[in-house]
Amino acid sequence: MGSNERRERAKEETRRRILDAARELFASEGAEAVTMRRIAERIEYTPTAIYVHFKDKLALLRELMTSDLQMFAAHFASVAAVEDPIERLCSMGHAYIDFALTHSNHYRLLFITTLPIPKNELTPAAGRGSPEEDAYAMLELVVGAALASGRLRPEHTDLPLLCQTVWSCMHGVASLAISMRCHSEFEWRPVTDITAMTLRWMVRGLVRDGDPYLSNLGAHP
Amino acid sequence: MGSNERRERAKEETRRRILDAARELFASEGAEAVTMRRIAERIEYTPTAIYVHFKDKLALLRELMTSDLQMFAAHFASVAAVEDPIERLCSMGHAYIDFALTHSNHYRLLFITTLPIPKNELTPAAGRGSPEEDAYAMLELVVGAALASGRLRPEHTDLPLLCQTVWSCMHGVASLAISMRCHSEFEWRPVTDITAMTLRWMVRGLVRDGDPYLSNLGAHP
DNA sequence: CACCATTAGTTAACGCCGTTAACCGAATTA
DNA sequence: TAATTCGGTTAACGGCGTTAACTAATGGTG
Description:
65% helix, homodimer, DNA-binding, 10 helices, 221 residues, mainly alpha
C-alpha cells in the first residue's frame, strides 16, 4: 500500500539522525566522546536502538568515515582550476594542510587513529574503488599531469611512488602539527612555514633544474 | 636501621615490575591491551595495587614513554659516526624509519597516539629539557652541522624550521607506513623506496646546486 | 616489651563502556 | 480478526579506570 515505503523512509531517517548525532558529537568533542550511550542520549533513544541500524560501533564509525572522505575529497575541488601543473600540486598540498587543521578531528579519524579493524572495506562505494581513492585518485591525476608535462626530472617515472611520497610528506606536516598543537613548551614554527618549506623541497626534488616555477621560490623566501 | 632502605628497595622493585609488565604487554599486544587489570594479573597483584605506585594510568604511561624516548634516542647512536654532514642527516633519516617500523608500537605511543593529557610534563628529566628533546637535540646537532658546513642553500638560516620540516617529512613516511600496513587492498610501494625518495628531495632542497653529494643520487636511481 | 604509626596491598564498590537476550507494542499482512 | 513483522525498550553481562575502607605486617618509640 506504499505505507511500507513510508516505514522504510522513517527507518532511513532515524539512521541518518544517529549518524548526524555521532558526527556532531565527534566534531565538537573528539573521537573519545563518541559513545553509543551519548549518541543515543542526543537523539533521545536507548543505546540499544542503534544496534537496529548498525551492526556495532565500528560499522557506525566506518560509515562516518566514508562521508568524511567525501567531504575531504570535496575540499580539493578548487585546485583543479589551477593551470600550471606544478603550482596545482602545491595548491593541493596547501589544501591538504588546510583541511587537516580546520577539521582536525575528522583528519584524525581518517588518517591518524588506527581503527582495530582495517579500513579495507570502508564501503563498496559507487563506481570503482573506495571513496578513499577519490582524493588519492585526484592526487594521481595532479601528479600525473606534472609527469606528463615533461618538466619532472627524468628519474621520476613511478607514479604511485611519487604520489605516496608526496602524501607521506604532507601527512607528516599535518599530523605532527595536530599532535604538537597543545605541546606548548616546544617552540614550534608556524605550520604555514613548515608547509611552504616542505612543498619547496618537493618541487625542487621533482622538477628539472631551471624550471620556470623555481624562480617563484628561488630568490629569498 | 637500614632495613628501611630494604623496604624502599622492595617498593622500587615492584614499581619496576609494574612498568616491565606494562611495557611487555604493550610491546607484544599493542596499546589497547594495556589495562590496569591485565598489568596486575601479570605480576599477580590486585589492580588497585598499581595505584600505590602510580597516580593513575596516564602517569604510568607517561613513565613508559620517557623510557621509550631514551630507547628511541639510543637508536641514533651510530649516526654520529658518519663523517659527511649531509650523509649523516640521511643516515639519521633511515634510522628514524627503521625505529618506527621495528618498534611500531612504541613509535605509535610516542608520536601517533594523542594522549588525553598533553605530554608537556613527560619528566623533569636529568639536566635540561625532557628526554624527548634528546633525539630532537641530536637532530638539531646534525642539521646544525650541515648548516655550518656551508653547503646548504643560502636561504636556509632558520635551524628550528629546518629541523621541524625534516622531522615532519620523516614522521609522515613512518606513520603512514605504519597505518597502511594492514591496508592490503592498496598497492603500496615499499617503505624503503618512499624513504629514499623523501630523503633525496630533502637533500636537493637543502644543499646548493652542484654539491658533491648530489652525484650520489643524481644518475638514475 | 608494649604501643602506636606507617604503609604495601586487598576487598568491595561505583560509574562508565560496548554489547546481547528477552521482551513489548504498534503497524502490516493474511 | 489472528498472525507476523520489526523498531524500540528493559535488564543484564563482562570489562574498564578509579576510589574508599580495610588488613596486616613492619618500624620506631615510651
